[in-house]
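Appendix B.2, paired examples.
Example (i):
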Amino acid sequence: PIILPDKLAVITSSAGRLKYHAVPVSAQTVESTIGDLLSAIHPVSDNRKRLKISEQVYDWLIRPTEAGDALADTQTIVFVLDGLLRNVPMAALYDGDQYLIEKYAVALSPGLQLMSSKSLDQISTDAVVGGISEARNGLSALPAVKDEIADISKLVSASTLINESFTSEGLAKDVKKSSASIIHLATHGQFSSRLEDTFLSTWEGRLSVKELSEILSVRGQSNAIELLVLSACDTASGDDRAVLGLAGLAVKSGARSTVATLWPVKDQAAAKLMRALYENVGKSGVGKAEALRQAQLSLLNDPSFSDPFFWSAYTLVGNWR
């Protein structure tokens, strides 16, 4: 989708064929509708209002393409988003009966060209897993992080760094000596289009995006990270280019795909989703986007976390296979 002054243009590439449709709606209307949708994604918001706005955006972006059968037999929709649309959780778009994630796996890409990637069912799913559960550096505690790391360690072979062992030096050592295809970091952090506003919290302080890229890129192309998961981080509020910053980190570090959140999520919900993600990672025929989709559906089907606020924040950027 491309936001133009007097219309919303949508180009769809499917099976090598390009299709185009345009909605005669002003950029101001599109942007105010997106703002209303983002404000409505919260458990205390009016559910009917949220669904109505979500269906409006669905009608703009998805329904004309579905009506033309361009999405027939499609399993994954990959969005290359423009402007404020980058902040919209596409998984939560609503067709009047179902959310988009109930029909398709969803991924984001900064462009239509991707780095080559291996599917996780073709390689070892070993992981380096780190995080902080205690209050540290003026940031609140994330008590469910301990359970999250313990659960992941039961599902995949993992070396773990928790609390005082989760330092920049400790992470660098583990990543360098490991051939793990997954790096999972459960700690406070923020992603922004501004490098100085992008960081992860470690036990001793902040790890800048430049430092993180250097730590992750030591592996080289022949032993690249297939999946980088940033469990408790979120994108900078109001920054419509933050997702591109996230994609930039992945490219710099050599990670083929990155999972992160558009806003902070309750850590109990994060722990449950991550457990479900790793239950699906490595299953035969299940790609990264589909593994995330199954994890999101596990929250959607849980009455405690069925609101889109809990599951739609999770976004996969990069190669979805």
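Example (ii):
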Amino acid sequence: MSTSKRQMRLGAFIMATGHHIAAWRHPEAQADAGLNIDHYRELAQTAERGKFDLVFVADSPAGWDRAKDPEALRRTAQGAHFEPLTLWAALSQVTKHIGFVATASTTYEDPYLLARRFASLDYISKGRAAWNVVTTGADVSKNFSISGHPAHADRYERAEEFVDLVKGLWDSYEDDAFIRDKESGVYLDPDKVHLVDHKGKFFSVAGPLNVGRPVQGYPVIVQAGASEPGRELAARTAEMIFTANQTFEDAQEFYSDVKGRLARYGRRSDELLISPGIFPVLGGTEAEAQANYDHIQSLVHPSIAWNILARHYKGIDLSGYSLDDPAPPLPDNTELNKSRLKLVSDLVSRNNLTLRQFYLAVATARGHRTVVGTPEQIADAMQTWFENGAADAFNIMPPILPTALTDFVDQVVPILRKRGLFRHEYEGTTLRENLGLQRPPNGFVVQAGQQQVQAAV
């Protein structure tokens, strides 16, 4: 049993110009970041210099609905950006250690094509790929040939089948299936190639995949849902959870609940890493940090403010309200992102927010935790959660990019290291090794072994 001290894991959660809704307007932001490969190269290399475990970009099949709010469309920088697997394949060639997490939807993707792309990324990056499994809360069905956005429960039922099928496809070839013996002329052992022959409620796929078994066995499986079905899916299939928690108590409850579900799936607590998002606003003093926070909040245009509110108050007429009126209760009749709805609803009710306070609270990090302070105070906040059953890792959400990531690496990471909480060097060559996760065995090999044991009894 290892006696080494438990180490914090760090991810850089990248939104092109920064996580704040108005980041692109800040003097230090890269305004064209979403489609600027040099910008992303700098971010990946900065995160690797800080010995981060991974970089992550959120993604959705959705575009911006110009008909609903053309004025807000004029003022947002979050509509156009790279497709993540393409981006990560490029950046894997200018880095050596950092992992790459790409979001892909189980509602709007095909299992075979997704399995193929992620297996390819794992080879191209030499074992640094991860899949953030999402069911897609937003209704983007108009961009796809399906008859409407599926209900929440149906999306998760499909996701359960989807993830199992993708893992089966990744197991199509055993690790030693490729012989490649030039002298004998034998390239492949057909007995070590497997069909999934899957026929389920949502999918019918024969296989095999036309990519060898990924370097890591499976790319690391990440999940982000915190609803009841989301927690159960994560407990059964995920190896890391990206979560949003506003309070220490909520984070502890989530951590305890999800970890407590693992045993019934034959899993240990350390096989699932829980990673809350944190939006750090740094300053040399508390006053400087607060001034930095106030400045970026001042950049939110009124049309963006009202657009934020309209997205949360779907079906409610806000025309009679001013921004200084108390925020009314949020509607709860959504089939979209249930866990995020609960988080922001609790935020409004717990703090008795006005509409202005509400939009400012979510303009930063969309419900993730915001911490404003000195580098020591940011480190203190992270250490408290890490050491008290609320987090194994953190998804760092820089307000402005590239400068806020550089500041975190240069100012906060050294404090975490000095306290013995974070690595000085990478532990391995793959993302799994750096996260302390085991390489999974091939499911077909495990099944064959079990059948042999049963036959011998």
